[in-house]
Structure formats: C-alpha cells, structure tokens
Design goal:
Layout (H helix, E strand, L loop, with lengths): L4 H16 L7 H7 L20 H16 L4 H14 L13 H13 L22 H13 L17 H16 L6 H18 L6 H17 L5 H4 L8 H5 L12 H14 L3 H10 L4 H16 L6 H5 L4 H28 L21 E4 L5 E4 L4 H13 L2 H11 L5 E5 L2 E5 L12 E4 L5 E3 H7 L4 E6 L1
C-alpha cells in the first residue's frame, strides 16, 4: 500500500494540537508543578473534552478543503474558507471557532471588508506570530506531492528524463505559493521565511531514504537557508534563524534556552529542538507540550514533521482514539492524497493508449510517444490532451465547453433565459443564478447552468441529480 503523506503529516499536526490544548498558556514551571503531560487530557484551558483540536488544525483543514475543491492552491478561496471557520464554525470540532489568534482574526475581518486577499495580511513587525506556520503544512505537502510525482502526475523515476523539471525552479514555485498563503494573515518576510524553511525540512524528511531525522532536518535547513541567501533582501531576516544553522550545536542546548512562545522564530526553534531531542513520535510531542506556553502550536508544528518521519502508525492508538471528528479529518487526508493519485492514474491511462510513432514526436512533459497524426490540445488550466483526427472537432468542442464554462459565459446564458437575476451560487459542477430573495432548493425561479455541457436546467432537476459542494456566492 502506497504511503499517504497527508495522513502522516496532518494527523501528526492534529494530534499535537489536541495534546497541547488543555495546558495552553501554562508556564513551564506551572506544568512541572501540576505534573507533566503524559498523554491526552481533557478540559483545562478551554474546558474542552479529550482530543479537542484548536485553530491550528481548523485553519489547516480549511486550506486542505480548498486544495480538494480547487485542485490546487487558490489563496482567495482559502481566505473564504477561513471566513467560514471564523463566522460559521466550519472546520471545528464542535461547530464554533475558538482560540483565534489576533493577527489571523484581523486579517479575516480585513478580507471580509475589502475582499482583497493580497492586502488583508498584516505586514508589521508584530505580524510575526506563529499563526501562518501552524497551518502551512497542507500547502507544503501539496507542492511536495505534486513535484515528487511530476507536474503531470507521473512518478519521477528516471532522473535523466528530458521532462524532469529543474529542482530549483520547483522549489521557487513552491516557496512563492507558500509565501502567498502565509501572507494571507502574516505578510511579513520573517513569518513567510519560517514557512519556507518548514517546507524544505518536510521535503527532506520525505526524501530521506532511511537517513536519521537530524540528517533530514539539517539538509532541509541547509537547502532552505541557501535558497533565501540567493536574494540579498533576505539576509537581514535570515539572521533571526541563525541558531538553526548548525543543528548539532542547537540540539545540545538545555531546555532553559529554548523558548516556546507564540513568536514564530521561538515556535520553529522549539519544534525543531523537540524533534532533535527525541526518537519517537510520542516523546517528541510530549516534550513539546511540556515546554509550556504556546503548547498546542509548538506541538502541532513538531507533530507535522514527526508524523512525516515516523508515520501515522507511530501515533499512539489511545491518542488517536479520542481525537474529535477523527474520521472527518482522516477522510480529508485521503481526499488530498487522491488528488495526485488521480493525476497519476490519468497519466498512466493516456500512456497505455498511446501508440509508438516513427517520427519521434513526444508528448510535452510526459515522454510518451504519440501518433504523428493525432492533434495536441491544451486546456485553459495548462493540461495537455491528444485526439485522434476523426475525434478532433466534436471532442474538442466538448472539451472546450467543459473547460471554459466560466462564470461570465454562464451569466450570459442565464441572462438570456431570465433577465431578472442579481445573485449567483457557484457549485463544483454548476452556476445557479436567481434573485437573491427567491433562491431556494425547491424553487423553480433559479436558472442552473451546468459547467460540463453549458446546458440550462431547472433547480429541482439539479437538486435531484447533484451533491456537489458550494464553492462561493456572488452578488451580481
């Protein structure tokens, strides 16, 4: 069975979050006085039952849900899902958001008012809490998973293949996306850099090939720091991470020199130190929690990397057994994993159908010979497909309708059928237009435009045939 890195990493994050929740904000000395945490506890700081996870996991799950539905990284959609968490209690254990950080909250309210994801994140010196780092793992895993399989979904086995993308360009693309998603709430370079370094460490863990955790983390830090050193504008901020340059030396520091506050540099250092100081998943997270202060987030950050290294099977069964909405979280992990699995399957099907040809013409970035008389087409999302000559006209038209049924085109069709509309709900497979005050599931007023065919159907027929998720609402 193929390893599910999403299950390893995300469940590591969620378990760490839940382990630290009951003692959040307690000082190290206070935890020692009351007795160290030795397993899952209930109640405490937020008076919540065992296995309750907080904002760290909620915001990570919101990002995962966006990845699942948008099949990629869509910053605007992620912010809309953060709004659902804040205002509707989505992605929470019990239907209500709690433990929100101030910087995240301010960014969400700013986005609600401005609807501009590029400017809602805080940029000042005090925007360097750990609220982006704690939720960045899904974005890191998306890029790692995508790049390990290849942009078209294939496993990369032959490193001399002509289609192999340059590692540096892949890392640049990943870091750019990670900075963008970090910046939705924490738009200061120092916070973005912490997320980037986390990506490089996660990447090296997953490419470790049996190396020790310390070796993987050191390679990750080396790669990350080398990446940021390429731009002189980063040098001032790199200095804040100087204690992580030599992990052998850093691992030898006593715990009284490790700070576990909500400052992003402290949180990253504390998480890495716990990973270096232990040799099991459980010991790593217990050490993180017993450092005190921002216990849930430090344990979540450490737990994500520990889960990737030790694996889902290493998480204590009694801890997993009490995780709130465990099935829901694990199903999200499987769906994220399936995104790349589906791409890989599609690639293999296309490869099996292709016939050798004499001219040597090959499919771009796939490396599979395609018959010379077949026609290459490119969809708006950048993916390539090939058609037999006799299929070209009819199939291409169907492909074009399927891939280019944009909101604007759907709106034009809807207005041709019903001019009195001022509201739209976009689902995964359809746009639904109506007057805002007449919209209802059973109503006959709305006009439904199917994305795949461009066909207009009535609301009742759509409701009877579709279970697609709502993506967004639009005032026209």
């Amino acid at each position: 069975m193929k390893k599910n890195i999403w299950l390893d990493g995300i469940m590591g994050l969620v378990v760490g979050d839940a382990l630290g929740c009951p003692v959040q904000f307690l000082s190290r000395d206070r935890i020692r006085e009351r007795g160290p945490v030795t397993g899952m506890e209930g109640y405490g700081t937020y008076n919540m039952p065992e296995g309750t996870w907080t904002d760290d996991s909620s915001m990570a799950l919101a990002a995962m849900d966006s990845i699942i539905h948008r099949k990629g990284i869509d910053p605007e959609d992620i912010m809309k899902r953060f709004m659902r968490w804040e205002f509707e209690g989505a992605y929470t254990p019990f239907g209500e958001a709690f433990d929100q950080g101030m910087t995240c909250t301010e960014a969400i309210y700013s986005f609600r008012d401005s609807e501009d994801y590029r400017t809602c994140g805080k940029t000042g010196e005090y925007a360097n809490g750990n609220g982006a780092l704690m939720r960045i793992l899904p974005v890191c895993l998306y890029y790692i998973d995508m790049n390990n399989r290849g942009s078209s979904g294939q496993e990369i086995e032959d490193h001399n293949d002509l289609c192999k993308a340059d590692t540096e360009s892949k890392d640049r693309e990943a870091v750019q996306g990670i900075h963008l998603v970090s910046g939705l709430t924490h738009n200061h370079l120092r916070s973005q850099m912490a997320c980037g370094l986390y990506y490089f460490m996660a990447k090296e863990i997953l490419q470790g090939n049996g190396d020790s955790l310390k070796e993987c983390l050191q390679r990750g830090m080396d790669a990350g720091l080398d990446f940021y050193r390429q731009d002189a504008k980063n040098h001032r901020e790199i200095a804040h991470y100087r204690r992580l340059v030599d992990l052998n030396q850093f691992a030898g520091l006593p715990d009284d020199q490790i700070r576990s506050s909500g400052y992003v540099v402290d949180s990253l250092e504390a998480a890495v130190w716990c990973l270096l100081a232990t040799d099991t998943f459980a010991d790593c997270l217990l050490k993180a929690v017993n450092l005190g202060l921002d216990t849930d987030t430090v344990a979540a950050i450490a737990g994500g990397l520990a889960g990737l290294y030790y694996g889902y099977e290493s998480i204590p069964a009694d801890w997993l057994a009490v995780i709130q909405k465990r099935d829901y979280v694990e199903e999200m992990c499987r769906k994220c994993n399936d995104l790349q699995q589906d791409k890989e399957t599609d690639h293999k099907k296309a490869k099996n159908k292709a016939r050798p040809m004499h001219s040597g013409f090959e499919a771009p970035c796939i490396g599979t010979p395609i018959p010379e008389d077949w026609v290459m087409k490119k969809r708006p999302d950048g993916t390539i497909y090939f058609l037999k000559p006799e299929e070209d006209d009819q199939t291409a038209q169907r492909e074009e309708r399927r891939m280019t049924m944009t909101f604007k085109k759907a709106e034009k069709i809807a207005r041709g059928l019903k001019k009195n509309i001022d509201f739209c709900q976009e689902y995964e497979d359809a746009f639904i237009f109506s007057k805002k005050d007449e919209f209802s599931i059973g109503g006959d007023g709305p006009v439904v435009i199917l994305k795949e065919s461009g066909e207009a159907i009535d609301m009742t027929s759509y409701c009877n045939s579709s279970k697609a998720a709502l993506l967004r609402e639009i005032d026209l």
